[in-house]
Amino acid sequence: MNFILETIRLIDLIDIGLVALLLFQVYKLVRGTVAVNIFYGVFLIYMLWLVVRALNMQLLGSILGQVIGLGLIALLIVFQQEVRRFLLVLGTRYFRNGKISFDHLFQLDNQRHGGWDYDSIILACERLSKSKTGALLVLAKKSELRAFAETGCPLDAAISSELIETVFRKDSPLHDGGMILVKNRISAARCVLPISENPSIPVGLGLRHRAAVGMSESSDSFVIVVSEETGSISYANQGELVRKINGEKLRKVLPAVLGDTIFS
Fold first, then answer.
1. How far apart are the C-alpha atoms of 50 and 36, rounded to whole Å?
2. Which residues neighbour 135 within 8 Å (Cβ) at sequence distance 6 or greater?
3. Rounded to an integer, what distance in angstroms lies between the CA atom of residue 6 and that of residue 28?
4. In 3D, which of 222, 196, 192 has the Cα closest to residue 82?
């Protein structure tokens, strides 16, 4: 026992701790999705490979080593969405407050403008909720979501509750799909958004709510949903769906998530 303790270095303990932390973060990322079963399978194969190496079983070890080597490429393909989400969360966490950014580093876009018009957005959601008019609003944080905006109809208009309500009227040609809001302007409407495959989403919810979750998984956006069936307001942020909130709750959540953003 003393021999084992003498051979363990401080750097070994740090190494074990970092690996455990990495595995925990990966598990949190895939938990609740179909990818979690793949994660279990890969983890068991890797543990088996370590045991085989420790027992010096060369033939089986070489086979498992080849499987793991090729498996890394396969994992990048299978976990494409999860890897994208992991990098997005990582980048958002350290660049969210804007203190660390390329704009600050290279002193780009020093001219700064006002922040979000929360009142108009909340008022539009409340009115849409009262009339049971379905709506899907995507509020961009750092990314301008140009790839998603290009799938819809460009507007580039100032935010107003009247315009938001008009776009989502059932007789409007732009009411299907999502509306993307970037830097306090309506960038585009009728945009095609990704659908989440998260099995934890309640079965009774339709494509509008699944698109909201999918958009928040695929980008750093904050998505507001108004149900056409019940008129209830929900929001999705970082893959999490919060249902049945009112205007007052939304008024507290928006500044907390988006902050008093000053756009450059």
1. 21
2. 124, 125, 128, 164, 168, 179, 224, 225, 226
3. 34
4. 196
Which pair of structure tokens corresponds to residue 240? 């999490």
- Give the list of residues 6+ apart from residue 112 with CB closer than 8 angstroms, or none: 262, 263, 264
Q: How is residue 79 written in tokens?
A: 């976990």
The full set of domains in the chain, from first to last, is 2-93 (no CATH), 118-258 (3.40.1700.10)
AA letter at 195 = I
**Per-residue pLDDT tens over the stretch 144-200:** 888 889 999 999 999 999 999 999 999 999 999 999 999 899 999 999 998 888 888
Rounded Cα distance between 176 and 174, Å, is: 6
Contact of 110 with 103, CB cutoff 8 Å? no
Task: Give the pTM.
Answer: 0.64
Q: Which two tokens stand for residue 256?
A: 């907390």
Given the structure tokens 């060369």, which residue do they identify? 58
Residue 161 CA to residue 117 CA, distance in Å, equals 10
Distance between CA atoms of residues 108 and 192, nearest Å: 31
> What is the rounded CA–CA span in Å between residue 241 and residue 258?
16
Q: Is the pLDDT of residue 219 over 50?
A: yes
